[in-house]
Amino acid sequence: MDRTFERIPSGCAISGIMNVAGQRISGEKIIASISLMHDRSNGLGGGFAAYGIYPEFADHYAFHLMYQSERGRTLTEEFLNKHFIIERGEPIPTRPVATITDPPLLWRYFLKVPEERLYKNPEPVDERDYVVEKVMYINDNIPDSYVASSGKNMGAFKGVGYPEDIGRFFRLEEYEGYLWTAHGRFPTNTPGWWGGAHPFTLLDWSVVHNGEISSYGINKRYLEMFGYKCTLMTDTEVVAYAVDLLHRRHDLPLEIVAKVLAAPFWKDIEKMDEEDRKLYTALRQVYGSSLLNGPFSIIVANSKVMMGLNDRIKLRPMVWGRRGDFYYMASEESAIYEIEPALDEVHVSKGGEPVIVRLKEGE
Amino acid sequence: MPEGRVMAMEINAKGMYYRDLNNLLREKVAEGVTEFTLQGINGQRYLGTGLKGKVKIEVYGTPGNDLGAFMDGPEIIVYGNGQDGIANTMNDGRIVVHGHAGDVLGYGMRGGELYIRESVGYRVGIHMKEYKKQVPVIVVGGTAGAFFGEYMAGGILVVLGLNKKEGEPLTGDYLGTGMHGGVIYLRGEVEKDILGKEVAEFELNEEDYRRLNPLLENYANFFNVSLDEIKKVPFKKLVPVSHRPYGKLYTY
Amino acid sequence: MANLIPPRFKVVIDYEKCRKCKRCVINCGFGVYSFADRVIPDHKKCVSCQRCVAFCPEEAITIIENPNVFRPNSYWTMEDRINIMKQAGSSGMLLTGMGNDRPYKNYFDHLLIDACQVTNPSIDPLREPMELTTYLGKKPDAVTVKVENGKVKLDTRIAPQIKLDTPIIFSPMSYGSISLNAHKALARAAKECGILMNTGEGGLHKDLYPYKDWIIVQVASGRFGVNQEYLDHSAVVEIKIGQGAKPGIGGHLPGEKVNREVSETRMIPEGTDALSPAPHHDIYSIEDLAQLIYALKEATNYEKPVSVKIAAVHNVAAIASGIARAGADIIYIDGFRGGTGAAPTIIRDHIGIPIELAIAAVDDRLRAEGIRNSVSIVAAGGIRHSGDVAKAIALGADAVAIGTAALIAMGCHVCQMCHTGNCSWGIATQRPELTQRLDPDWAAQQLINLVKSWSLELKEILGALGLNAIESLRGSRERLRGIGLNDTELAILGVKHAGR
């Protein structure tokens, strides 16, 4: 594809629902929530991440693939066959929707990593690193192919169109998940690039993002130093990779990851007690290139957690609320009320202060 | 239409697109309707925008962004929470929100009044300004987020901090940063290090109470709160120390 | 035959305005003026330092370029011809001061900075927080933490870091090449601005000891003034390998400049030449550099970052990588426009590469090798204004160093005669009647003003870029565009052409 554009600016709407007891609900609600914010998108991108939707393949990496050509599919399937055990491969079910035109070939594969693959090197390879490397390889090297998602028991469904139309196209009402996030996109040009829609994912991480990351240039170069390939022409993918680097590879707690992405100001670090001051000073010294500068509100999720985060001077909106075990996050409060009129609590988020919701233990 | 006659109507706006709703409102106002009750509001933007004169709108639900943007006279009462951008560049009128509200309220507001029963988000009262007899007012019953009164050039901001939790600050950081006109009345104390460098804190004088008291009375009346309770805590005021804080910034 | 060489400048005196106050006679460090009934200039001695012009109360003096025209020749410039005449008459190497003044391509002026419009907002730097704080030093690849009683605590030992309030420091200029008053002004300004001054290789005068937390002390090939006490009075220790104005070249401070105080500071006898060998004779290879770096770390108990200063030469990227791997905490790169107190003209004008290309090449190489975090980059050599600072940082520098700009702030008019020791402005001289002209308090305030105004401008640039911390600009070449550059140049700089 034409990658003259390194990055396409876009505005957006985001929404997320999580049941912390693991209770699964259909895709209807998240569609209703995101579609209320119709005017925040312009029909050039919509998408959903859904967790808990493949219980029968819970231990398999679920790869959602987008192909621009049959050749891409042939090459990718060859590649997958070589590096994985393909338990099942099938087209992702869709229904015709008048406004959704020219979709790519959409396939999904349930994969396992052949164990011997992890021991070929002198040092054993982390299975997740192995998967990440293969995802990066496909996105970067196999023509006409793009991995939309690669986590276990989850999937990303996204494309060019309004989110509610994308949701119907992918028949999301037929899926059940305990965690859903959604995105409606307002990009400023029209390359018709399905891969450019949100969410962006890596393993079971997904990110939906409203705003524009002004520090994209250095975030990208920093992540490239750690082997990530930023090829998707959008600033949002750097968020997914940064979270993967900081949380999974550098083993930082999610709360601390949030404080790297939206770092406290030096003047506020000065006021901390000595121990915190040391920690936060070190974080900014070491991870300055991971600071996401510029306006953003994001919902980052994985199988166990949903985190809402705003930039440190809060230039993008976010509201979160709760009703029983259901937690909601959205760009507009009305998008929550649309699906849950009687909230137990509702709050306007603060800049740089993450809202983290975790699956209850043992669920 | 005879002078002084009130024509009222109720609209069930559930699921209604904002453009259709606002068109309907403008049409009905032109026909002489002066009081509206809007039921089932959720997320419709720009309510009250483009309306002039003596019109009263009661809103049940959560109106969308830019409620009352560029509004010039009407009164809007919201029974629910507000979102972002309320009273954006508003010229005249009154908005009363029986709940909390989001960010960037009263941006560039030149006149009229905004009362929020509970707390508000970031950058409320940003670049509010007064001109001749127009003095915009925002009264916040709860607490305010960071950048409250940023670049404020005129008008009155009030934060009451009612029902605030122990240890919860009255406002966020960067209070009155870039403020160069108008006044902020604070019910209670704030940490000095959150103040913008352009402002200083002072005691209220008689003139201040003359301006503040009617606003507090309004708040008490609108939300059925005891005025005595509000007045139990002493007020401080923030005003800019210079109308031209950047006079020495440039060289020629 | 001396008449072969025409004067470069003409001193034009308006005798109708002249009150014969003789201020010009007193002020000229180069002996241009004599007085006999009226002021008489010797045009040949004039270097256009502008001191007399600035101090003439009647504005009666104008210095013009000699209008006498050699036959025009676009190949044999007037300067080339005069230099040949000088050498034919003397058999000496041409000597000069300040930085390369030849019209080589200037990459800073072929780079343009981005700004936000609509899709992301610019930020108001006057009302919203805007951070320029920069830490120089070696950073680990990752931070490790431990959780104790629910509290997250730092578990990584972070190597020594130096905090700068703004990413601009003063470049090394030795006491000897410049006056003690100039050194004092630099130290005071560094403290006030929360930045660093650099001793250069001439040792540290005891009057500057109170400023030790804002001082980089240099260890150069001559090892002047280097002892434990010297190392102790510093924030950073810097090994000087090379200088942009004279890469690969040593130098010497002539004995006549080594007065009592210079002698004490350099710890050499009064009146002797202070020789700086071309190389460090304990560094003939990269592993020797590592040996010296760790010797200095041992001497300073691993409490101070060790910087290595090199000139930007062709293979700068590989050299920088070697320096990072040798254990340096900071790499200071001096581009070919960097200044000097004295250098052979032919060296100054023909050796080295532009700092813009050097920053890009070094930053790229360190990233490709995954070791960019392990070292900070300070870039110098021709930083003229905050626009250059922003561009250097966007290309990949952590901070910049300014020398010539700092001298100009103290009164220097860039006459390029530092090597003569006659500086009429009292900066690049040790002549007491000249050095007393520079009031260190005034000069410090001038420097403080300059750093503060550049910092304000940097905040405006960041605000326009929609950024509120300098680290978000550092290495963010996406925010730069080239103009009038070819594909190779763009590829080296890692920027797209304007319009893309």
TrEMBL record, chain A:
<protein>
    <recommendedName>
        <fullName>Glutamine amidotransferase type-2 domain-containing protein</fullName>
    </recommendedName>
</protein>
<feature type="domain" description="Glutamine amidotransferase type-2">
    <location>
        <begin position="12"/>
        <end position="363"/>
    </location>
</feature>
<dbReference type="InterPro" id="IPR017932">
    <property type="entry name" value="GATase_2_dom"/>
</dbReference>
<feature type="active site" description="For GATase activity">
    <location>
        <position position="12"/>
    </location>
</feature>
<dbReference type="InterPro" id="IPR029055">
    <property type="entry name" value="Ntn_hydrolases_N"/>
</dbReference>
<dbReference type="Pfam" id="PF00310">
    <property type="entry name" value="GATase_2"/>
</dbReference>
<dbReference type="InterPro" id="IPR012375">
    <property type="entry name" value="Glu_synth_lsu_1"/>
</dbReference>
Automatic annotation (TrEMBL), chain C:
<feature type="binding site">
    <location>
        <position position="56"/>
    </location>
    <ligand>
        <name>[4Fe-4S] cluster 1</name>
    </ligand>
</feature>
<dbReference type="InterPro" id="IPR024188">
    <property type="entry name" value="GltB"/>
</dbReference>
<feature type="binding site">
    <location>
        <position position="52"/>
    </location>
    <ligand>
        <name>[4Fe-4S] cluster 2</name>
    </ligand>
</feature>
<comment type="similarity">
    <text>Belongs to the glutamate synthase family.</text>
</comment>
<keyword id="KW-0004">4Fe-4S</keyword>
<feature type="domain" description="4Fe-4S ferredoxin-type">
    <location>
        <begin position="37"/>
        <end position="66"/>
    </location>
</feature>
<feature type="binding site">
    <location>
        <position position="21"/>
    </location>
    <ligand>
        <name>[4Fe-4S] cluster 1</name>
    </ligand>
</feature>
<feature type="binding site">
    <location>
        <position position="49"/>
    </location>
    <ligand>
        <name>[4Fe-4S] cluster 2</name>
    </ligand>
</feature>
<feature type="binding site">
    <location>
        <position position="18"/>
    </location>
    <ligand>
        <name>[4Fe-4S] cluster 1</name>
    </ligand>
</feature>
<feature type="binding site">
    <location>
        <position position="28"/>
    </location>
    <ligand>
        <name>[4Fe-4S] cluster 2</name>
    </ligand>
</feature>
<dbReference type="InterPro" id="IPR017900">
    <property type="entry name" value="4Fe4S_Fe_S_CS"/>
</dbReference>
<dbReference type="GO" id="GO:0006537">
    <property type="term" value="P:glutamate biosynthetic process"/>
</dbReference>
<dbReference type="InterPro" id="IPR002932">
    <property type="entry name" value="Glu_synthdom"/>
</dbReference>
<keyword id="KW-0314">Glutamate biosynthesis</keyword>
<dbReference type="GO" id="GO:0046872">
    <property type="term" value="F:metal ion binding"/>
</dbReference>
<keyword id="KW-0028">Amino-acid biosynthesis</keyword>
<feature type="binding site">
    <location>
        <position position="46"/>
    </location>
    <ligand>
        <name>[4Fe-4S] cluster 2</name>
    </ligand>
</feature>
<dbReference type="Pfam" id="PF01645">
    <property type="entry name" value="Glu_synthase"/>
</dbReference>
<dbReference type="GO" id="GO:0051539">
    <property type="term" value="F:4 iron, 4 sulfur cluster binding"/>
</dbReference>
<dbReference type="InterPro" id="IPR013785">
    <property type="entry name" value="Aldolase_TIM"/>
</dbReference>
<keyword id="KW-0479">Metal-binding</keyword>
<protein>
    <recommendedName>
        <fullName>glutamate synthase (NADPH)</fullName>
        <ecNumber>1.4.1.13</ecNumber>
    </recommendedName>
</protein>
